[in-house]
Amino acid sequence: MDLENQARIKDLAEKYGKENLIVVLGGAEAEASGLAAETVSTGDPTYAGPLSGVSLGLKAYHIFELKDEIDPAVYDEQISMMEMVLEVDEIVNEVKNYRG
Amino acid sequence: MNFPVVKGAAYALIQAKEMVLHHGTTQTSEGRKNPASEHLMKLPEHLRSFQDAVSYPPNQVYIGNMTPEDLRSIPRPWYQAPVSGASRNGKFGEIMPEDEFLGLMKIVDAFDLVVLEEQFQNSVREKLVGHPVLGDIMGLEKLSKDPGNAEEIRKLVDGHTAQPMYFEGKLVGCVKRAHEFDEALSDRVMFENLVGKASATFALKLLLAKTKLQPDEVEYIIECSEEACGDMNQRGGGNFAKAIGEMCGCINATGSDTRSFCAGPVHALVEAAALAQTGIYKNVVVLAGGSSAKLGMNSKDHVKKGMPILEDMLGAFAIHIGENDGINPVIRTDGIGRHRIGSGSSPQAVMTSIVADPLDKLGYKIPEVDRYSPEMQNPEITEPAGAGDVPLANFKMIGALSVKRGELEKSELLKAVNSFGMPGFAPTQGHIPSGVPFIGHARDMILSGEINRAMIVGKGSLFLGRLTNLFDGVSFVMEKNSGVFQETGFNKDEVRLMIAEAMRDFAQTFRGK
Questions:
Q1: In this complex, is the C-beta atom of A31 within 8 Å of any C-beta atom belonging to chain B?
Q2: Deepest in the core among B129, B137, B199, B511, taking most CB within 10 A?
Q3: What is the mean pLDDT of chain B?
Q4: Closest-CA residue in chain B for A1?
């Protein structure tokens, strides 16, 4: 996960409290999405960024998992094309792994 | 309308494996953080020979000796499928080795910043004097002058006032800083800018050699790389375009630089099309050189996966846009695609604005475009780094958009993707893969009647510059020339005649009264 984003998420968790935060991912691929989910829950596995060794325990969801929470018109306009293109199940299963 | 045409395209690659080690930012950042890094130790073992780079199938496609279609039939990994009898010379351009390129950097250096060690300088001079395209380049005599000695070069590099130039593991030269304090003129910036200038100069020389365009016929040059040339008071002052034109004898040209990260080249081509169509400039060249900073960007993953370092190529191109000649493929300027500030940044919003909207204007459905050329990165480079097959992802998005618009059955999606898509073959040099590598092939295919039209798509990630989160994208359709066109501009004599007739009519009316 991008080092700048790691820093931003760390700051937000400190500012608003871990319990008040979830992370919504838009990754296009399972491995990268899983890596992001892992980074915000157990820490940066690559030990490159501010979340190295920092276990925020945040729950990450891929936007595909939140379909029911979103206005169908907005979802259709913003996400439905990518839903047709990407490996949805693979991505969702990978992200779920890190929610404990 | 009298559309402008694509008159020619040239492409250059330079294998720069020492620059991967010493100038690629993945490596220089790693070196700063951890000089004893395992990655830096292992990396040299993964560098490939010049011949391996020449016979690498995607590189042969880039310089036009093979087509993107040919790549489909070569099983991956392509780095294990060398093209037998591959030549460094191609239909559209050439693949140059690193030593000749270091010589070219000295040739294009106008401020005596490049120092080459004497023996090395002599050896590259011989090679460049005999080079079919560069043998007559202005400034070649610099390789007979002011050689440096190894000790002096080592001292400059160790003193951090110069960037090293290596060839086959040996320090053979350096690029000195151009100012004592000015960061915009530091040795690092000057190195990168000279790499950009030298590689783009090579591409323009190739264009002039491989097409009928004469240097003095070029009226405007648009440079569209991602470098910035300037000083501390105006960091991006410019002007790469004129500096490059000067090297190639384009004495009648002026020019300027256009920037938009990877979307830059397509913006520049649209600008060139407008200039040529209006007749403001008859012959416009859009060009860009390569980026040494991006070399070996994904090399950590390539090393981990036991692959050769495929990101050892600097890319460059030069494309000639001119007035309609009734023959060459036209650029449909009545249907330019653009990502608007208000378009939104989701992939769907981007694709709608740059693919669907312009096609609506032209009255075409998505499947009626024979080929799409979005970001044409070589998947063999991006997949091991977790970025997937970028062109394929784009073709799927275009197909999915077509399904959503009711132009295509969902069950036909993959078939359509196969038909209008093609394997990626361009080096990951940012602006280089973005749409433009296919223009030479598209021109050939349209001229031969193999296809009728292609859409060239450029996309740029503007957030990288930290001024906006907006995305960027531009597109245009290249199409078979109908052969029907009008002479552009107005004819002074005709206008005089018209005015005279109007005056006569007026006089007669007046007399009649």
A1: yes
A2: B199
A3: 95
A4: B386
